[in-house]
Amino acid sequence: MSNAIGVNTKKRGRPVTTGKGQLVGVRLQPDQLAALDTWIEAQPEPRPTRPEAIRQLLAERLVAP
Questions:
Q1: pLDDT tens per residue across span 6-61
Q2: pTM for this model (two decimals)
Q3: d(Cα 65, Cα 43) in Å, to the nearest integer?
């Protein structure tokens, strides 16, 4: 005999975030976004996502004197 009620394995609510860092929202102007996308296209595979590209650029700039 089969069960009349199916088992719902779907979890409710928002997914767990992957990082514990502070969220910083940034708006970029079209020319800045185009420059970022151009920089990303110049990177070797696998290319970084926009957020990862911004993190890499910040890390490079903040380390330099």
A1: 777 777 777 777 777 888 899 999 999 999 999 999 999 999 999 999 999 999 98
A2: 0.65
A3: 24
Encoded tokens for 51: 């957020």
The angle at the Cα of 25, spanning 49 to 27, to the nearest 5 degrees, equals: 80
Distance CA 13, CA 31 (A): 37
Please tell me what DSSP assigns to residue 7.
-
Spatial separation of the C-alpha atoms in residues 48 and 40, rounded to whole Å: 6
Nearest-angstrom CA–CA distance, 24 and 55? 11
Return phi, psi of residue 40, to 5°: -60, -45
Closest CA to 21 of 63, 54, 45: 54
**Using an 8 Å Cβ cutoff, are 50 and 40 in contact?**
yes
